[in-house]
Amino acid sequence: MAIACKQNNEDNHAHNPDGSHVGEEIPRVDYTIWTDQTELFVEFPVLIVGQPSKFAAHFTVMDKHQPVREGSVTVSLIKGDKGIRATAESPSSPGIFSPIIQPKESGIHQLVFDLSTPQYTDKIMIKDLMVYANMEEANNAIDDAGEDGSISFLKEQAWKIEFQTASVMNGEIYDVIKTSGVWQPAQGSVKTMVATANGTVNFATTNLTEGTEVKQGQLLMNVSSQGLASNNLSAEIAKAKANYDQATSEYNRKKELYESKIIPKSEFEKVESNYAIAKSQYQSLASGVSGGSKQIRAPFDGFIRSVNVANGDYAEQGTVLISVATEQSKVLKSQIAPTYGLTMQNIKNVWYQTEIGNWKSILDSEGEILSISKDVERDSPLISVYAKVNDAINLPDGSLTQVQIAMGNGEQGTLVPESALMEDYGNYSVMVQLSGESFERRPISIGKRNGKNVEVLKGLQVGDVVVTTGAYQVKMASMSGSTPAHGHEH
Fold this sequence. Notes:
By secondary structure, this protein is mainly beta. The protein has helices spanning 135-141, 155-158, 233-259, 265-286, 471-479, and strands at 2-8, 25-34, 38-45, 53-54, 56-61, 66-67, 72-79, 82-88, 96-97, 100-101, 107-116, 121-131, 151-152, 164-167, 169-185, 190-194, 199-203, 213-214, 219-224, 289-290, 293-297, 302-307, 314-315, 320-325, 330-336, 347-355, 358-361, 368-372, 383-389, 400-417, 422-424, 427-435, 438-450, 453-458, 465-469.
C-alpha cells in the first residue's frame, strides 16, 4: 500500500528540460509490503521518464525483526513484456539497499524486488505503479499527504531493540476453563539403572549430582568386583565364556550329525537349547564390561534425577544406583470441577505456561489428552485431566503452571497475540503498524483469551499488523515530542 507522499514546490522561473522548476524537489512515495519471511519498507522519488530514482529499500527479516545484513537486491520495472532492472549487490547500510532505476516509458508498471540472502530468497511485488511523463504530471497526480498524526518510529530504531510484529488473523475461538496444573514425569522419561553385578561403585566423574546434564552413552559410574573372593565378575565371565565355547562346539558338531540324519531331532534340540542359554548368559555378563567392571551409561540425553549410592559403596546385584530423566516429555495434571462435564471428545486443546506470559499449546509439540479421571479425589472434589506434553519443560516435577482447557466447538473470530495488548486501567489498546516507520495506537475491545491469542471484538481487522514486542518503546517515541532524524539517505 502507498503510505505517504512528500513534495516541496517552489515558484521558480527557471525550468529543467523535463518542465520542472529548477530546485524543485521531486515528490517521494513509500510502500510497505509484508510476506511470510520479509517486511519491505521502500521510499523513493516518484518515477518520471528519464529521471533517475534512488531507492531506500529497507528489508527486515520477520523472524526476530532483524535487518538483512548480507545479500543482494534486484529491482525490476516492468510494463507488459518489457522492462529494466538494477541490482544492489550489498546493503549500503545494514538492512538498506539503494538501487537506482531510470524509467524509459510512462504508464502503469509493476515493480518487483528480488531479495537473495545466504539464508533465503524472497520476491516482493508492487502492482500498478505509475511512471509519469514529466514533473508537472506527477505533481498534478500526487497530493501532499501532510501530517496524519501517526507515530514515527524508524527502522533503525526498531532494529536496535527487541521488536516483533504479527498480522491480525482469523481463527477459531473456544470457551476455556482457567485452572492450574502440576508437572509430572511422563512414562519413559525417567530411567532407573541398577547394579547388574556385585561390586564397588566408582563414579566416572566428580560432579555426579542431581540436576547434572548428561548425554546419551556418557559413562556415569563403574561397578567393579575386583578383589572380591566370591561373585567376582571377571571369574564369572571367564566361566561363562568357557561354557559358551563348549556349548558352541557341541552345537556345531550335533548340527552336522542332525543334518546328516545320524541323530534324532530331539537330541539336536536339547543341544541347541543349551547353546542358546550359554550364549545369553555370557553376553549378559560381558555386556557393558570394561577392565573387569560393569559400566553404567546414560540411556539418553537428560539430567541426573537422583543418585542412590555414594562413591566407593558396595552394591549387590539389583541395587538401584542412579536415575536419569529427560525434560523433552512430561505429563501435565490439571484439576477442574466435575460440573463442567468434560469428556475426551469435547476437549479441543490445552494451553500451559513455561514462564510468565509465554503460552504454549500441547498441539504445537504433537501432544495429546491422555485421560480424564472418572472419580473425584477424596481430599478434593475435583476430577483430573492428564495431558502429554512433548516439549522441553525446564521446570522440576511438581511445579505449578497456569492452564487453559479449550472445550466445545470453536467459533470464527479475529485474533491478536496477547503480547500485543497494552493495558491502562482495564482499557486495552494495540500499536498498529501503518507503514514501515509509521504507527498508530488504537483502542480495542477484547473477548475470550485462548492461550497466547486474544479475541478482538472491535478495533482491528484481519490483515492489520500489530507490534507484539516493543510496543511500549513505540509509545515512548510518541511522547518524546520530536521526530528522530533518518539514519539513511533519501
